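Researcher: Please translate sequence to structure tokens.
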Amino acid sequence: MDLPGPYSGGSNEPISAGYWSLAQPSDTLESDRVLEDEDEIGLKDPQWRDVPEAERRPGTQYYSVARIRIKFQGEVAYGTGFMVTEDIMVTAAHCVYDWNRNRTGPAQSIKAYFGYENKTWTEIRHGSMTIVSTKWMTPGDGRKNDLALVRLSPRYATDIYGYSLPPILPFKYPGLSWSGNEWLFIPGHPRDRGDNGLRMHESSGYVRWNLSQDNMLLGYGISTFGGLSGAPVVLSDRKTVVAIHVSGDRAKGKNFACPIGPCGVSLGPFIRFFEGQYASLGRVRYEGELSIQDVNLLSYNS
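Model: Translation complete:
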């Protein structure tokens, strides 16, 4: 464990979370599936587009959207993640601690793939540590805490072809307003586009929302599919993320995202965790071969 020591300064009300170290990924074959809610909705007349190479090559904003491969106990799953710093990736909490189907529990390892082109990936990194809200790991708390952060391994200076890699462009995350109306876009790696989730696709739609009407989730009629779990929901500038796509509800005819910011989950305390700003609770829980350590995150200036 190579975290800085706990921060000893003051804080507002702390956020309870659990973190654990991730193993180096192996290439052992396991049964695989996509991470999706059982009611994920693919709508009629969806507005999908293939994201062109010019918009997702190294140095672009969408290069910061990754396809992720998660190894759980006995199986492998796929989702989407996005970068908020050079080394910290955000995804859905169920991509690292899954309650879907049988109780799968915590992820053992994570790989993040960037820049698919010419049947290969420009860059591959692995997760070294992940952190999730304790509320998500408590059964029945709902999707409004379905958010996790993963620290990735350091980048190589060059890509697989030997060319220098430009810096990662992290997404901005100012927070989602309580209500509003915007064109929203969801880039990621769904597995229904005929390429098994390899290429990046983007779904979009005009959305009117009021968080109080959807149990503090962002609801929308944008079409989604398995493999988009953890994808950023972005504004029309394609640089600002306001929520993380997490699920769907066929009865309501909507898909849903976990809002970012004061009206949802603030990323600041989770990012500061990796800078050593946390308070250890001295509690360790064991799930299989993994040990999950409980901490309080400092929520000032979130």
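Researcher: Any highlights?
Model: The helical segments are 268-273.
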